[in-house]
Amino acid sequence: MQNEDKLQNLYNTYVDMIYKICYLYFKGNKADIEDAIQSIFLKVIEKNIVFKNEEHTKAWFIITTHNYCKNKVKHWWNKNKELDFDIEETPKTDDTLPYILNLPAKYKTPIYLYYYEGYTCPEIASILHIKENTVYSLLNRGRQILKEKLGSDF
């Protein structure tokens, strides 16, 4: 019973964050997002993962979600199917989310982690296993693209 309570607590704590990351990759396709969330929590159950602390738990969910979504998007089946989603079901964050969704894939995750989850550039570099300067470059280029699309609204 205690494991069920721990899993329920993990789910309640991290499901919104996982949903938002999946949303960025699957561009609102609700079925793919729900499959991803289910698969990620099944991984926790099957591998009986023990987390060191809250920061380790959050980082694990971000990395696992990022990797799962990246691999799913690359799959040939997903490249050949049409997206089916209702823009009204987007997570209510701010008006820039649709523009972030249209960014090239390499900019989405760093921008999300920086602006929505509050990670620093060194932390993002560690999470994504890339150089810190690369994170700064990705954030800068992503912001430039958003500024071009949003104009003075950015």
Number of domains: 2
Q: Please, what is the oligomeric state?
A: single chain
| Helical proportion, percent range | over 70%
Shape: globular
Q: How does CATH name the architecture of the largest domain?
A: Orthogonal Bundle
**SSE order in H/E notation?**
HHHHHHHH
Radius of gyration: 16 Å
- Give the CATH level 1 class of the largest domain: Mainly Alpha
Q: Which regions are unreliable across 5 or more consecutive residues at pLDDT < 50?
A: 80-92
DSSP strand tally: 0
Task: Give the gist of this structure.
This protein is mainly alpha-helical. It contains eight helices and no strands. It is globular, with a radius of gyration of 16 Å.
Task: List key phrases describing it.
single chain, 154 residues, mainly alpha, Rna Polymerase Sigma Factor, Chain: A, Arc Repressor Mutant, subunit A, 2 domains, 8 helices, globular
